[in-house]
Amino acid sequence: MRLAMTTLGCPKWDIETVFTRASDYGFDGVDFRGLQENLDITRQPEFTSEMDQTRRLLDEAGLSVSALSSSIEICNSDSSEENVSRARRLLPIAHGLDVEYIRVFGKGDSDTQSDSEMARTGRTTMEQILSLEGATDVQWIVETHDNWTQSEDCRVLVDRVDSPNVSVLWDVGHTARTGSESPAETLETLGSSIEYVHIKDAVYEPDHEYAMDDGWRYVAPGTGELPLAETIQLLRRVCFDGWVLFEHEKRWHPELQDPEHAYPAFVDWFKNLSRGR
Length: 277
What we know:
InterPro entries: IolE/XylAMocC-like, Xyl_isomerase-like_sf, Xyl_isomerase-like_TIM-brl. The protein is an alpha/beta fold. It is built from nine helices and ten strands. The strands form two sheets. The chain has an eight-stranded parallel barrel, surrounded by five helices. It has a two-stranded antiparallel ribbon with strand order 8-9. Strand 2, helix 2 and strand 3 (about 65-75) form a beta-alpha-beta unit.
């Protein structure tokens, strides 16, 4: 398994700092969900006019860009034009930095549409995206999120899209905390469709000042109530060799630990877990 960090966790770092510290901390890759104040990297010079410099910094750090985490919502019929536009802008970045994965959301309006109808829209959107030049050189990963958090629902969407270029991003925090699934249940349902994994931990403390709407709050990996160790053990058992991302959401939750401490602590935790400590 290869370890990646997300730029959600370090919203104040410039791109050189991102690469330097990711390498120093022992990560293998960086997942871009924005950079500094801008969530849309396709509008930033580091990924357009200054792409050659970004590529040089990436190579010097000995890293990969594990994924580009987009805001594309494939099951939203009223935003299909914007979805395709976003995909079109992301593809030159993916090709320029040798990125294999682009994350998308399912979303959709579950109040007015059935899962089947939303999945049909998802298929149509992905067909439009995959018709773009170079789109089949990339793997588009659908996150277990929103209407598609539970593994059986996500399976319905991915099966309906029915493309070898579309697979699953397993967010363990979502399936366990929101979907009420054990890691074994998720893995049994989604199996080899899983190509990318998000890791974060949380505790259920509904009265805490930083609790989210569902009563949970994020904590350092290994200190919470989510089945992270069990998940890693199961992934090893099936010889998963993809990316494991520490999704440190400092941008959304400023009360979380600063990245200078959270990121190296995650790498230490993961390596100790590997050694059985």
